[in-house]
Write a sequence for this structure.
């Protein structure tokens, strides 16, 4: 197809939108409602172009290229329209960028700057000024909403939860929860995909970075940080690097510069999870069930199971998620080593996830009278901290994690990507069950980014049916099939976010359609670089069992590393009671 | 006492019926018993309307003169020298376009399905079921029938596009969400000839290969819908709907759906959203509904009036249909005359009829004291037309002259209406009805309303503000997602132009 | 009580379903019938549960469409046409009369809870303008005197 853009002819091989075509040849077209993770709504009218033969301007994100098409992407007519539409958004959007969570990563802010849009109109603001801080995971500040429909679509299309709907109409519409209930009382699982796609600061993670900043400036506690597998392949994006840039060493260095006393690796916790969860699975195999067993490291998935599919709670692995395990080990095993009590230590987890903020508030994770993890910061929040402290991230020398809880394997590294937990578990389960060495470490069957992947794996004389799923919409389909008896599995890995943790709701915002693929590639690269690639071979783990835990699923393990779940399906009902008289007509 | 008013075509087109009505009005106001006769043979005069009181011939140029004549000549029974006419010209030959009854063919003629069948009803369906879908498409294409909802898309092409789509399922949808202010033709059809609508829908379904159909009727018409429901039940009972229609092997299920009070639901993609159980917010096009419509399946959405014409075209042929109207806009169109008109009625006229004929011959001018100031054509999203432009021919090309045909609404507005009053009325409507999907319409309608409200509060027109409004609505036109935002400029700018020309104050 | 009405509404709406999800709007409409002119939030949430859709979706419908409401705010809802065909044909005066007689503005309820005044785009009865609709009943060819008389009839309970 030959397409002329701004007077220059280009050749395109395959059908694509005008937006994609323009970007492919390096022509910038502004967008605001477009997001590669969801279907397009065509609502913001920023990506307008002039197409020869068309009476009106066309949105390039919804228009497909045709042979012989002539397009102008920044004619005066286009620019006037885009600038005007930005003026209209500025009319309803407050000027409080300086203290806004989205400052510096706000798509509206960028566009206003790019097009030099002054405040030419009166500021009318939004018709609603709802501030919803009910959830430990996300914060909604609808006074900043520009009604781009991204959050509504993300929740519907990725998770099929439709926590939000665009209620009322015209200037007066806003993305509401049912009956304007606090989001935490709805079916919301805290995955934070809405905060990931929000172009402005209307939905963000619940910010905890300021509290951590204060903690670091307060000398009387030992402050220990741990970092999730998926953060190291994404944090550099906060500083302009290409998605998939591995920056583990720089991240560790930056954390030390921020003032953390010890920098540990959640990957250690992941290895520990595999040993515990792997042994739990082996025990179920030997006892003949109950099957299926579901993974339990994704807190949004746990929320989903408890709220929407309560029968699943009986099947979930009892293993705590990796950072909770590591938190418990830090405050016991490691505390002893440095001569401290659990309460002298504060643990901060750097996570790609908003739901982890919710997870640490679960009562059943409290041990004795202390919490294994005190704060969770998202990758984005870490980026902000580093920036605010003026740390030159990209030019930092690489540093290593502290010992011993910084030692990990390739199996732990792949926790960050969909299929990774399954693969890591299989690497260990295979060797535990058969007593033989794996002929090939990689399980290609569980890799890839298809929504649902299943396989039958031969372990010794046993055939193990496994499934890997990511995104709750896919999960819902799979569970319904299982309910109907159309599918049976022994072991199922579920990750609520697209691509697993690498696509988590707390990750750096990105409009790169291949961001998940690129980050996944980096994760597998880390795995390959590791000398040890099976969790049970991690020497620090072995030492931990020898010195402290004694055996997997043992008494101490049960106390520190396992948990239980409850049916919360009734909890999010009766939202109608939140409907305030007179609030909405 | 008797007043004769000239009613030959020349006089009528100059507003003689308005004057005749006005005399009736005055007799009511003054409590005087007067017999007003419209006399086509009275003749006419130059530069005014010829009136005869007791054999005396007068010429009145406007209502002021008519009122004077009434007081002097009728109440005081005096001769009114100032208005006397010396030269009476002979009456003119007919040049007023007569009504053509295609859609209105059965209006007032039947009560139930037996009556409809007696009038030849469902013969077109029988005929169609024996034709190949391609032949029907060809016939409809040849007729030149264009959508009567406002956009005027050729119906045959729409059907052809849906027919060509390969899909497990297709839908037809009848758009009866008549929300365009000033439009009540579809309601008339549903009240007067529901079976012709059902027949038209069944033919469209058979043609494109749809086995399921919806009639989406606005919630405000729930009483009218009872008539339609009854007709649908009758059609099901007689086998014109349902399984194996008339032994043809063609199955077609038709159900009724109600709107919830949303103007934009009349836009076809918003309407589909509504049937799918969501807020009526327009989708971007392409893909068009004929490719990806209801539940992602090929869907044909047609207006009531369009569909009612189909059985007639099938029976009488495309050529017969083309005898009416113009080359680019063949056939007839229903016009609903309303506002300050003396006669608020639905008339069916060939396209190409002049606005003057509709206003003065069928609407009979302005009721009561006021004089005609302007006409809004095509509904709220249509244009304001000054009385200087009444000779414009109404068809799909009229928009080139700044006159929209739209839904066929003809709203007469008298000189009592002020610019700011009308402008606020118009923009409040659009602000209220904007679905909120796209920025230029959602915030633009809000902003323009704010600006006009401010002028209303201050009680004066601000020229700079008007310029700003023009800029906003033109960008709204250029960059909005659907027809709503794209047409707000029609009424607003045409109204501003009238203000500039001093045709409205 | 609520559940029974919701079940009735669902059953009625589903009667005419051609597709799995084509009767959601119909459910909201039938809820209004069941509850006498409004769909209480409780009923909407229950209906959403039965329909297996998110309650936010029914909340969207009930707040987007102007004929739907979640609250029974007044005994009678007056919907007066504000559109141009009515406006220029005496509608202006009708609205003035209504606002004066009721002493409220659009969107408000009289202190005695008797009337709510709503504006409506167009009722499609422009041949009998000006018009208004009280609950489901259309009143046409209105004059100020007629409006006063109609309000009086509702107040006195002559019309229920």
């Amino acid at each position: 197809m030959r397409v002329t853009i701004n007077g220059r002819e280009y050749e395109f091989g395959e059908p694509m939108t005008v937006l994609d075509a323009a970007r492919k040849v390096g022509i910038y077209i502004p967008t605001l409602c477009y997001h590669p993770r969801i279907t397009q709504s065509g609502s913001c009218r920023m990506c307008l172009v002039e197409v020869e033969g068309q009476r009106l301007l066309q949105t390039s994100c919804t228009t497909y290229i045709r042979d012989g098409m002539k397009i102008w992407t920044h004619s005066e007519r286009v620019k006037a329209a885009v600038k005007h539409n930005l003026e209209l958004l500025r009319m309803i959007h407050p000027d409080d960028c300086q203290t806004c969570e989205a400052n510096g990563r706000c798509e509206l802010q960028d566009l206003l700057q790019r097009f030099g849009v002054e405040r030419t109109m009166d500021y009318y603001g939004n018709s609603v000024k709802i501030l919803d801080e009910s959830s430990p995971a996300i914060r909604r500040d609808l006074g900043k909403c520009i009604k781009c429909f991204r959050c509504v679509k993300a929740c519907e299309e990725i998770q099929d939860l439709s926590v939000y709907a665009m209620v009322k109409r015209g200037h007066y519409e806003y993305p509401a929860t049912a009956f304007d209930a606090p989001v935490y009382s709805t079916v919301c699982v805290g995955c934070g995909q809405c905060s990931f796609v929000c172009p402005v600061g209307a939905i963000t993670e619940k910010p905890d970075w300021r509290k951590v900043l204060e903690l670091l400036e307060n000398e009387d506690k030992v402050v220990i940080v741990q970092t999730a597998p998926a953060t190291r392949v994404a944090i550099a994006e906060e500083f302009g690097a290409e998605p998939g840039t591995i920056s583990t060493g720089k991240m560790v260095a930056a954390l030390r510069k921020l003032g953390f006393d010890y920098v540990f690796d959640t990957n250690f916790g992941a290895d520990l999870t595999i040993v515990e969860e792997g042994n739990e699975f082996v025990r179920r195999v030997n006892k003949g069930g109950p099957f299926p067993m579901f993974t339990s490291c994704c807190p949004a998935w746990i929320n989903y199971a408890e709220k929407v599919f309560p029968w699943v709670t009986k099947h979930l692995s009892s293993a705590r998620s990796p950072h909770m395990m590591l938190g418990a080990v830090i405050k016991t095993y490691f505390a002893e080593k440095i001569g401290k009590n659990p309460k002298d230590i504060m643990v901060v987890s750097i996570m790609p996830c908003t739901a982890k903020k919710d997870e640490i508030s679960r009562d059943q994770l409290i041990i004795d009278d202390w919490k294994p993890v005190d704060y969770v910061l998202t990758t984005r929040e870490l980026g902000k901290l580093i920036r605010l402290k003026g740390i030159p991230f990209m030019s930092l020398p690489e540093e290593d994690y502290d010992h011993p809880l910084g030692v990990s394997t390739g199996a732990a590294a792949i926790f960050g990507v969909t299929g990774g937990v399954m693969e890591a578990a299989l690497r260990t389960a295979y060797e535990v069950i058969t007593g033989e060495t794996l002929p090939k470490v990689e399980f290609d069957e569980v890799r890839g980014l298809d929504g649902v992947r299943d396989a039958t794996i031969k372990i010794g004389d046993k055939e193990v049916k496994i499934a890997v799923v990511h995104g709750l919409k896919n999960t819902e389909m799979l569970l319904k099939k299982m309910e109907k008896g159309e599918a049976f599995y022994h072991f199922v890995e579920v990750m609520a976010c697209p691509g697993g943790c690498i696509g988590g709701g707390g990750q750096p915002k990105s409009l790169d359609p291949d961001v998940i693929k690129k980050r996944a590639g980096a994760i597998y690269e880390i795995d390959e670089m590791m000398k040890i690639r099976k969790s049970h071979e991690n020497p620090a783990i072995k030492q931990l069992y020898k010195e402290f835990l004694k055996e997997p699923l043992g008494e101490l393990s049960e106390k520190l590393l396992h948990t239980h779940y409850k049916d919360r399906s009734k909890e999010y009902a009766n939202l109608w009671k939140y409907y305030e008289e007179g609030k909405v007509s | 006492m008797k007043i004769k008013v000239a009613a030959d075509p020349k006089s009528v087109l100059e507003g003689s019926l308005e004057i005749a009505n006005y005399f009736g009005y005055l007799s009511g106001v003054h409590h005087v018993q007067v017999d007003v006769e419209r006399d086509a043979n009275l003749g006419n005069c130059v530069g005014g309307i010829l009136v005869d009181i007791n054999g005396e011939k007068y010429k009145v140029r406007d209502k002021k003169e008519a009122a004077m004549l009434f007081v002097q000549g009728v109440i005081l029974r005096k001769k009114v020298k100032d208005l006397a006419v010396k030269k009476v010209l002979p009456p003119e030959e007919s040049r007023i376009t007569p009504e053509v009854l295609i859609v209105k063919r059965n209006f007032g003629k039947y009560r139930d399905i037996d009556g409809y069948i007696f009038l030849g009803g469902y013969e077109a369906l029988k005929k169609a079921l024996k034709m190949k879908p391609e032949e029907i498409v060809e016939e409809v294409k040849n007729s030149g029938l264009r959508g009567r909802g406002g956009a005027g898309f050729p119906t045959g092409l729409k059907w052809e596009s849906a027919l060509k789509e390969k899909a497990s399922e297709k839908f037809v949808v009848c758009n009866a969400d008549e929300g365009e202010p000033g439009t009540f033709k579809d309601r008339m059809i549903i009240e007067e000839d529901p079976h012709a609508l059902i027949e038209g829908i069944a033919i469209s379904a058979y043609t494109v290969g749809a086995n399921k159909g919806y009639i989406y009727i606005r919630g405000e018409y729930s009483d009218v819908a009872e008539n339609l429901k009854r007709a649908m039940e009758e059609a099901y009972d007689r086998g014109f709907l349902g399984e194996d229609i008339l032994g043809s092997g063609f199955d077609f299920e038709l159900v009724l759906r109600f709107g919830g009070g949303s103007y934009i639901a009349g836009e076809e993609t918003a309407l589909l959203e509504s049937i799918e159980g969501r807020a009526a917010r327009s989708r971007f096009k392409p893909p068009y509904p004929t490719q990806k419509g209801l539940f992602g399946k090929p869907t044909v959405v047609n207006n009531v009036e369009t569909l009612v014409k189909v059985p007639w075209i099938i029976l009488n042929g495309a050529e017969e249909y083309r005898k009416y109207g113009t080359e680019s806009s063949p056939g007839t169109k229903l016009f609903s005359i309303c506002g300050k008109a003396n006669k608020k009625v639905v008339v069916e006229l060939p396209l190409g009829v002049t606005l003057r004929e509709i206003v003065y011959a069928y609407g009979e001018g302005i009721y009561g004291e006021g004089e005609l100031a302007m006409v809004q054509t095509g509904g709220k999203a249509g244009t304001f037309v000054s009385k200087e432009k009444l000779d414009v021919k109404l068809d799909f090309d009229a928009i080139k002259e700044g006159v929209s045909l739209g839904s066929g609404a003809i709203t007469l507005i008298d000189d009592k209406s002020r610019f700011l009053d009308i402008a606020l009325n118009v923009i409040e409507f659009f602000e209220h009805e904007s679905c909120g999907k796209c920025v230029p319409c959602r915030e633009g309608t809000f902003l323009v309303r704010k600006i006009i409200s401010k002028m209303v509060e201050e009680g004066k027109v601000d020229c700079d503000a008007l310029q700003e409004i023009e800029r906003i609505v033109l960008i709204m036109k250029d960059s909005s997602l659907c027809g709503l935002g794209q047409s707000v400029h029609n009424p607003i700018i045409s109204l501003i132009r009238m203000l500039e020309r001093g045709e409205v104050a | 009580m609520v559940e029974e009405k919701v079940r009735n509404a669902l059953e009625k709406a589903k009667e005419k379903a051609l597709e799995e999800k084509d009767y959601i709007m119909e459910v909201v409409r039938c809820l209004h019938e069941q509850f006498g002119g409004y769909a209480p939030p409780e009923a909407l949430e229950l209906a959403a549960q039965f329909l297996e859709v998110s309650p936010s979706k029914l909340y969207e419908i009930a707040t987007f469409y102007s004929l739907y409401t979640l609250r029974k705010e007044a005994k009678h809802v007056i919907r007066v046409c504000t559109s141009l065909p009515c406006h220029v044909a005496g509608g202006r005066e009708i609205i003035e009369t209504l606002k004066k007689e009721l002493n409220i503005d659009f969107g408000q309820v009289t202190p005695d809870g008797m009337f709510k005044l709503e504006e409506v785009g167009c009722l499609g009865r422009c041949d009998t303008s000006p018009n208004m609709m009280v609950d489901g009943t259309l009143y046409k060819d209105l004059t100020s005197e007629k409006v006063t008389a109609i309000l009086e009839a509702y107040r006195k309970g002559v019309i229920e």
Summary: The first strand of chain B starts at residue 2 and ends at 6. Chain B is about 40% helix and 15% strand.
